[in-house]
Design a protein that fits this description.
By secondary structure, the chain is α/β, with parallel strands linked by helices. The chain has helices at residues 5-22, 39-52, 69-73, 116-128, 148-156, 170-185, 216-224, 236-245, 249-252, 257-268, and strands spanning 26-31, 57-61, 80-81, 87-88, 90-91, 96-99, 137-141, 160-166, 190-201, 208-210, 228-234. The protein has one domain (27-268): 3-Layer(aba) Sandwich (Rossmann fold), CATH 3.40.50. α2 crosses α10 and α4 packs parallel to α5. The structure holds adenosine-5'-diphosphate and magnesium ion (MG).
Length: 269
């Protein structure tokens, strides 16, 4: 086989990415079996909490069909490339950088129609052909399930661990079990489970009420051989403040039960 200049350049970019990634303290992919369980909310708020605490943090969004990181950060921007064609992650306030396909689209409502190989290649480009600054933490937001995007992320990011988000509902737990099985097959470590929206904070009195059978998420975590890292309440008021103030919950409603639990979770990482 003939080695081309392009092959050599690709190899050098790979080496540089591996060198850069080896210095990142923790690389965490937020995943789930089911959709709509709170992945993007967890991912973005953990990243913001860490960045506000002084760490240098990157968010890589590999959810190409539902890229919500930009929306969850209330960050409109366009990704630029430098002279060498390297993508420049978008700054999102002090210590935080974001790379998402949403910031590459001409029309914000445009659908990304990529299939398997195109998505695998895009993840590779976001990792090896992007000028990421030196980071302490990298959070990867993923689509639900066990598809190409998450697999590509584990291939492209050495040392990547998973945080598995689920609700306490039986269907969410059943799909989470498949995600855990995927991780075992991919030999990817599971850092822990997050139970999201398993309790409800009463908007009137602030009392926290369980929505699902007690211990369901905890038992799932134990079966998966990973710790239950957090129980995040369904907090409608914190969510409302986030929307109204145009900031993630940890910034928009720092005194809420949800923000407190998210900060505790960030501290455990
Ligand atoms: N703990 C929570 N309290 C209130 N709303 C939440 C909470 N977690 C997620 N949400 C809301 O639920 C919806 C789905 O969450 P999202 O993070 O987008 O899930 P996913 O990324 O898994 O699809 C969003 O509208 C989000 O704002
Ligand atoms: Mg999402």
């Amino acid at each position: 086989m003939i080695t081309t200049l392009a092959d050599i350049e690709k190899g050098l970019r790979r080496q540089e990415a591996d060198r850069r990634l080896s210095r990142v303290r923790r690389k965490l992919l937020v995943m789930s079996g089911k959709g709509g369980v709170g992945k993007t909310t967890v991912c973005v708020n953990l990243a913001v909490a860490k960045a506000r605490a002084g760490a240098r943090v990157g968010i890589l969004d590999v959810d190409f069909h539902g890229p919500d990181v930009a929306g969850a950060l209330f960050l409109e921007a366009r990704v630029e490339a430098d002279g060498a064609g390297m993508l420049l992650p978008v700054p999102a306030g002090e210590n935080l950088w974001v790379l998402t396909v949403q910031h590459l689209l001409e029309d914000p409502d445009e659908a990304v129609l990529w299939r398997g190989p195109r998505k695998m290649r895009a993840v590779e480009r976001f990792v090896t052909e992007a000028a990421w600054p030196e980071l302490d933490f990298l959070f990867v937001d993923s689509p639900p399930g066990t598809g190409d995007e998450s697999l590509a992320a584990f291939r492209q990011v050495p040392g990547l661990e998973a945080i598995l988000v689920t609700t306490g509902h039986s269907l969410s737990l059943a799909d989470a079990a498949k995600a855990a099985s995927f991780l075992r097959a991919a030999r990817a470590p599971l850092a822990g489970v997050v139970d999201c929206m398993g309790t409800l904070v009463c908007p009137r009195c602030g009392e926290e009420t369980a929505l699902y059978p007690a211990g369901a998420a905890e038992a799932f975590a134990a079966r998966s051989g990973a710790p239950l890292l957090a129980r995040l309440p369904w907090d409608l008021e914190a969510q409302r403040l986030s929307e109204a103030r145009g900031k993630p919950v940890v910034e928009a409603a720092p005194d809420s039960l949800l923000a407190g639990r998210l900060r505790e979770l960030a501290d455990r990482l």
